[in-house]
Amino acid sequence: MVYEEVILVDDQDKAIGVAEKQAAHEKALLHRAFSVFIFYRTDTSIELLLQQRAKNKYHAGGLWTNTCCGHPRPQETILAAAERRLREEMGLSISLREIGTFQYTAHFDNGLTENEIDHVCIGFATSKEVTINPIEAENYRWIDLQTLAQELEQSSHSFTPWFPLALQVVLQHVHG
């Protein structure tokens, strides 16, 4: 396993230290994260790029989620980290912008806990070409928001626990 650090924060998202990523999730330490949403405009709708997390991920393996997500490294900005992970996970180089944050906690069957202040970033693709990294994602798909809303209502267990929360930030930004 690669040694990675996450930025520990207080409830106002002020950095208060660092911790090894696995330890932060074992101890449910509040840390900084990001969720990326990539959209593609068609003639009739806007589609969102979803990722199905690789089954071997440290939690939530096999579940569908936003385009990519992760944790900034110490001394790395949210946008730099989000754009880096978007390239690493999905093979996309797209400029992003941050549109909001939310805080959540999610407990997983393997004893790990996500306790994050999550920064939501969006961007727009100019094509639907994606090259997924199989270590990170096992599948992807483009989906229009109406179909996504139906799937979330009918099969919420197929999605990561943070995805609906991050999507709400996106929808409030778009409709707000």
Termini distance?
42 Å
Largest beta sheet, briefly? 7 strands, mixed
Share of helix, binned: 10-25%
Assign the CATH topology of the domain at 33-97 and 118-175: Nucleoside Triphosphate Pyrophosphohydrolase
Question: How many beta-strand elements?
Answer: 9
CATH homologous superfamily placement of the domain at 33-97 and 118-175: Nucleoside Triphosphate Pyrophosphohydrolase
Order of helices and strands: EEHEEEEHEEEHH
Q: Using the CA coordinates, give the radius of gyration.
A: 15 Å
Q: What is the overall shape?
A: globular
Q: Which CATH architecture of the domain at 33-97 and 118-175 would you pick?
A: Alpha-Beta Complex
Mean pLDDT: 96
Low-confidence stretches: none
Q: In DSSP terms, counting alpha (H) and pi (I) runs of 4 or more, how many helices?
A: 4
Record keyword descriptors for this entry.
about 180 residues; alpha+beta; Nucleoside Triphosphate Pyrophosphohydrolase; 7-stranded mixed sheet; two-stranded antiparallel sheet; 4 helices; about 25% helix; about 40% strand; globular
